[in-house]
Amino acid sequence: MENKNYKDEQFDSFLTKTIILSSKRYFKKEINTNRKEQIIFDDQNYSAFIQGFFDSQNPNFESTIDLSLSVKEALKSLSAIEQSVIFLLFNEDLSQKEAAQILADNGVDALVVIGGDGSFTGAKLLSKLGVKTIGLPGTIDNDLTYTDYTIGFDTALNTVVDAIDKIRDTSTSHERVSIVEVMGRNCGDIALHTGVACGAEYIITPEKGYDKDELCKVILEGKKAGKMHNLVLLAEGVGGASELAKYIEAQTGIETRATVLGHIQRGGAPSAFDRVLASRMGSKAIELLMEGKTSKVVGIKNNQIFDQDIDEALALNRTFDEKLYEISEEISK
Q1: Helices 241-252 and 212-224, interaxial angle, to 10°?
Q2: Residue 86: its pLDDT value, please?
Q3: What is the pLDDT of residue 320?
């Protein structure tokens, strides 16, 4: 007879009435723990969920239980780690109360919401109506101040570094300036971290801005010092890679090419760090819900998993890693 403690039984029962709600597509199938079914909502946004699309025949909602997919297999198939949140939770036609009632009617006790500030705002509103909600930070932008890292950020960094290493090979042989525009919305973390990792001569972020003439001066000084290639990291929150490339070439006489990496940064298999981080955060979310807690978000600080009230997390002002930026300037010389 299988040995099973009380906590396992609680966990089994809990999973049958919990939805993991993600505005991303990276949980493509239902994850199970070989105990009992765990429903995963897999739509682009909350809207289908609010309308009560619990009918498995509806193409906008996946509610079929796939017991053949283990957690181990699911971790390997997190193929679209990040996508923009389309926040359509409470529009003019659908009310918050209707959403909560749909949950109640379908026997759903709790939500684990994976996403960014838009997703968390929706979770907070539902929590005020009695729905237990826990938020997990899922965005490549790493723009949630309360946590050191978000799920997907490290994977995006590795994707960008790999792409830049390939771009550098060609640019060096042709003695070009390469401008690489990366994602991040209004947060410069992807540009900053990959710029340091790749030894960029110049990093442009929304937080720090830049001066075109100073940039051209840095490039010319590098050329004079014998550099075969200059790499400029540009955050999409600043944008204008093609225009900047034309300006640099006109001012310096050095052939300059712009590359916008685009949505390649959102795909691919997750890094080991992200797999472990997601597992640690997911475990913490279940623990919080089993303790009866709600309206919380899970994060990581100094490699320690912690929880915080959603309101507090959303109220924090965005910060920028000034020290890492200083390091980038030092190593680029």
Answers
A1: 50
A2: 32
A3: 93
CA count, 13 A, side-chain hemisphere, 162 = 10
Catalytic hit among 43, 117, 141, 154: 141
> How far apart are the two ends of the chain, measured CA to CA in Å?
67
Burial class of residue 83 (count of CB atoms within 10 Å of its CB; 0-12, 13-18, 19+): buried
What is the rounded distance in angstroms from the CA atom of residue 212 to the CA atom of residue 238?
Answer: 13
Query: Residue type at 74?
Result: A
Residue 160 amino acid letter: V
141 is catalytic: yes
| pTM of the model as a whole | 0.79
Whole-number CA gyration radius for the chain: 23
Q: Per residue in 74-112, pLDDT tens?
A: 444 443 333 322 333 444 335 577 777 777 777 778 888
The helix/strand count (H/E) of the chain reads as 12, 10
Planar angle of CA 235, 236, 239, nearest 5 degrees: 100
Q: What is the mean pLDDT of residues 26-30?
A: 32
* Torsion over CA: 20, 24, 25, 26 (sign): negative
